[in-house]
Design a protein that fits this description.
Layout (H helix, E strand, L loop, with lengths): L11 E10 L6 H19 L3 E9 L3 H9 L4 H18 L6 E4 L3 H16 L3 E11 L4 E3 L1 H6 L12 E10 L5 H10 L4 E2 L1 H12 L5 E2 L1 E3 L10 E2 L2 E6 L1 H6 L1 H4 L14 E5 L3 H14 L8 E4 L2 E3 L14 H11 L1 H11 L7 E3 L1 H31 L11 E2 L2 E2 H17 L3 H22 L1 H4 L6 H22 L4 H10 L10 H4 L36
Parallel strand pairs: 1-2, 1-12, 2-3, 7-13, 12-13, 14-15
Antiparallel strand pairs: 4-5, 4-6, 6-8, 9-11, 10-11, 16-17
Helix pairs in contact: 2-3, 11-12, 12-13, 13-15, 13-17, 14-15, 14-17, 15-17, 17-18
The structure holds one RNA strand.
RNA sequence: GGCGAUGUAGCUCAGUCUGGUUAGAGCGAGGGAUUCAUAAACCCUAGGUCGGCGGUUCGAGUCCGCCCAUCGCCA
């Protein structure tokens, strides 16, 4: 394999979200996964990596055709409209993705056809017969489990399912079982979190069967989807089509170096496709495997599952309401730090939002920044004091403390603990609070003879806040840019943690601005914010 | 039905693999002291049968068995 396809994996960082089903409207599920992608991308950039962050939409589902017809538009018009809604929501969240792939784009379709041909040529895709439970009313096959749970009747029409057989193309998944298991054994971080890994391994051990990768195209039906090469009677299954997006988007001369992905982020519902079928297809294509596949769990709302029947989905207008009321970065912070990164679901409860906001942001970072800036304003006329080279005071070795926070953030990021990577910043700001309480600069200020000591203390405080802001910036880019600006630090766009996170970056003499409260304290008694609908 | 997990302070969880002083953290709550700060930070307090029952052991949240509850996956 050419050297170009073995990039220095400590240099590049390719992160993906799933591509979202274009019939959906953006809700917390899509926004959360994409926020994690944005966070990982920003953390990677801060670590100095060359980052590529991909999201997009999955558009070739049969139901797109019927939904479009119901709305009196063509499928592509319908897809255009809904894809735009995702892009609008993602722009609102300030997600810095580098590309937005749509599976109806020619660049994707052509690549998928080529991948299928490669798989056919190698024998990994072959023709066979598929037999399964067919729901005539819905014109779809049901899985064995779904069919059994529905008592072998259509869940919709209640008419009995029929056993049906059709010619199909299959992917030889069974042939990769041993290799995949070996890979998972050798790479414990391949599937995360661990509970999900165990789940997948347990299921693989029950044996892998070949999977159909195509469906017969009904003659005369609307052309929608990717046709099997040299066989216009079959279309590539949408989920196979969709999985290829991760490769097709990057499969150009300029972007090839980003492969393989550092991490595929996804929800636990689509773990099997990503953890088993996708890696096996990549093995069949002789492509390097992604370094990690991370499946998060679900948000629930006020203790209840979100469902259509309850009508309690946390949709984009609701999220926008929170962003308007408490700031976008506060919403990002809540979702990142309280979200279902692990194997258990997380609760989006209003009271919990307020608690987190006040504890971490208003009473935490915001208040610490405020008290420091206020004292510098009051005792040094707003000019950053000069510690005159002193870094260790009253038992506080600040370069070590700040360096510890930076390292904690780095290692959390490397092990994909995305929330912990930014929470290290809050921990550092708490050290500043403790230091102020221990040294009581506001008392020292009353004694003019102790001005030098006061300067040392307040410099340490300001410098630690600056580094905390840097660590926090991937989660809260806007607010932390504001905070860093108040400390006379340059903008974040080119910031590097290992360089700018060094102790001593803050220049004595720069103007320190007190400003308005970064995160005004939230009233726990106030009702939840009203949803804000978009312009469309 | 099959496979797997979880159940520890009001909430979210760590600790269980390698059994051993008064079972921990953060948040919330109550009290105190203080004032540089966003009635914030700080200090003290919470007396939780470590889901239940039984077993092994000098000794179990930590090992074994059974039971109860909740949850995940089953292409």
């Amino acid at each position: 394999m050419p050297a170009a396809q073995h990039p220095d994996q400590t240099r590049t960082y390719y992160v993906t979200t799933p591509i979202y089903y274009v019939n959906d409207r953006p809700h917390i599920g899509h926004c959360y996964t994409t926020l994690l992608g944005d966070l990982a991308a920003r953390l990677a950039r801060l670590a100095g990596r060359d980052v590529f962050f991909l999201t997009g939409t999955d558009e070739h589902a049969e139901k797109v055709v019927s939904s479009a017809a119901a709305h009196g538009v063509t499928p592509i018009q319908w897809a255009d409209r809904n894809a735009a809604a995702f892009q609008e929501a993602f722009r609102f969240f300030d997600f810095g993705f580098d590309d937005f792939i749509r599976t109806t784009q020619r660049r994707h379709i052509e690549k998928v056809e080529a991948y299928i041909r490669r798989l056919q040529a190698s024998g990994a895709i072959y023709e066979g017969d598929y037999e399964g439970w067919w729901d005539e009313s819905q014109e779809e096959y049901l899985t064995e489990t779904t069919a059994r749970e529905a008592d072998f009747k259509s869940p919709v029409s209640k008419k009995p399912l029929v056993r049906r057989r059709e010619r199909n193309y299959f992917f030889r998944l069974s042939a990769f079982e041993d290799r995949l298991l070996a890979h998972m054994e050798a790479n414990p971080g391949f599937i995360q979190p661990e509970a999900r890994r165990n789940e997948v391994i347990g299921r693989i051990r029950q044996g892998l069967q070949d999977v159909p990768v195509s469906r017969a195209a009904e003659p005369g039906s609307t052309p929608w989807g990717i046709l099997m090469p040299d066989d216009p009677g079959h279309r590539v299954y949408v989920w196979i089509d969709a999985l290829f997006n991760y490769l097709s988007t990057i499969d150009t001369p300029e972007r090839r170096g980003y492969w393989p992905p550092a991490v595929h982020l996804l929800g636990k519902d689509i773990l099997w496709f990503h953890a088993v079928i996708w890696p096996c297809m990549l093995m069949a294509l002789d492509e390097p495997l992604p370094r990690a596949i991370y499946a998060h769990s679900w948000w629930i709302r006020e203790g209840q599952k979100m469902s259509k029947s309850l009508g309690n989905f946390l949709d984009f207008p609701t999220l926008r309401g929170y962003a308007e009321a408490y700031s976008l970065d506060a919403l990002r912070w809540f979702l990142i730090t309280q979200g279902p990164l692990g194997a258990t679901d997380a609760d989006f409860a209003h009271a919990r939002f307020i608690e987190t906001y006040n504890a971490d942001l208003a009473n935490g970072v915001g208040n610490a920044a405020s008290r420091v800036a206020n004292m510098i304003d009051k005792y040094f006329d707003g000019a950053c004091p000069d510690p005159k080279g002193i870094t260790n005071h009253a038992g506080h070795d600040w370069p070590a403390i700040a360096g510890g926070a930076v390292n904690a953030s780095k290692s959390a990021f490397e092990s994909l603990e995305l929330a912990a990577a930014v929470e290290a910043g809050v921990a550092l700001s708490r050290r500043v609070d403790g230091y102020i309480n221990a040294t009581e600069p506001f008392k020292i200020a009353k004694d003019p003879a102790r001005k030098d000591e006061l300067a040392v203390i307040l410099y340490h405080c300001a410098e630690a806040i600056r580094i905390a802001a840097l660590i926090l910036s991937p989660a809260m880019p806007t607010k932390m840019a504001d905070l860093l600006g108040r400390l006379g630090a340059p903008d974040l766009s080119a910031a590097r943690l290992d360089r700018d996170g060094q102790w001593g970056g803050l220049r004595p003499g720069v103007k320190v601005v007190k400003g308005e409260a970064l995160f005004p304290r939230a009233d726990a008694e106030a009702p939840p914010p009203e949803p804000i609908a978009g312009e469309d």
